[in-house]
Amino acid sequence: MNLESGKLDRREAIRMVFAAAATISVLNQQSFGATPLPAQPYGTDALLRKDYKPGDFWPLTLSDEQKVTTRALADLILPEDDTSVAASKVGVVDFIDEWISAPYELQQTDRKRVLDGLRWLEAESRKRFLKTFADLNRTDQSSIADDICNLGSARSEFKIPAEFFAAFRNLTAGGYYATQKGWKDIGYVGNVVLFQFPGPPRTVLEKLGLEKN
Amino acid sequence: MPIITSSKSKISYDVIVVGSGAAGSQTAYTLTMGGAKVLMLEAGRDYDPVKETPMFQTNAQAPLAASNTPDKHFGFHDATVDGGWRVPNEPYYVKRAGQSGWQEGTDWIAPGSNQNWMWWRSRMLGGRTNHWGRISLRMGPYDFKPRSRDGLGLDWPINYSDLAPYYDKVELLIGVYGSNEGMENTPDSSPGTLLEPPKPHAHELYSKKMCASLGIPFMPIHRAVLSVKQDHVNAPAKLHPGNERAQKIIAKHMQLRAACFWATPCGRGCSTRANYQSTTVHLPPALETGNLDIVPNAMVREVTTNGAGKATGIIYIDKISGQEVSAKGRIIVLAASGCESARILLNSQSKLFPNGLGNSSGKVGRYLMDTVGASVSGQIPALENLPPHNTDGAGTHYYAPWWLYKEQLAGKLNFARGYHIEPGGGRDMPGMGIAEDVAKITGGGYGKKFKEDMRRYYGSFVNYDGRGEMIPNENSYCEIDPERKDKWGIPVLRFHFQWSDHEINQAAHMHKTFKDMIGAMGGRVTSVVETDGRKAIYPPGAIIHEVGTTCIGADPKNSVLNLWCQAWDVNNLYVTDGGPFVSNADKNPTLSIMALAWRSADHMLDELKKGNI
Ligand SMILES: Cc1cc2nc3c(=O)[nH]c(=O)nc-3n(C[C@H](O)[C@H](O)[C@H](O)COP(=O)(O)OP(=O)(O)OC[C@H]3O[C@@H](n4cnc5c(N)ncnc54)[C@H](O)[C@@H]3O)c2cc1C
Ligand code: SF4
Question: CB A44 to CB B84 under 8 A?
Answer without folding.
Answer: yes
